[in-house]
Design a protein that fits this description.
By secondary structure, this protein is mainly α. Helix content is 54%, strand content 0%. The protein contains three helices and no strands. The protein has helices spanning 9-34, 38-43, 76-95. The longest helix has 26 residues, at 9-34. The chain starts with 8 loop residues before the first helix and ends with a helix.
Length: 96
Amino acid sequence: MIQYGYISGVAMVFELIVFGVILLSVGYWATMFVMGRRDDVLHGKFVEEQPDTEPVRFVPQVPRVRRPPPAPQPNKDSLQALLTVIKRDLNDAARS
């Protein structure tokens, strides 16, 4: 039974929906106002039409490919020095 003096469940849900829409619109208005779009907030003009004075030209941007610098070619002396260092490290590791 519906008791008199109380809001029914359907009416309460409808009231919550109305309050939610009002709350969202106030939040949107406040956000636009804070962002500095006061003309949009006050007059509702979101897009200003400006005639195009110059035709739009499409120029595709070609990405520049940077090639890595060529690696220096190892010579005989540098390879020999590397081999001696590796041998020394292996001997040190074998002793430990």
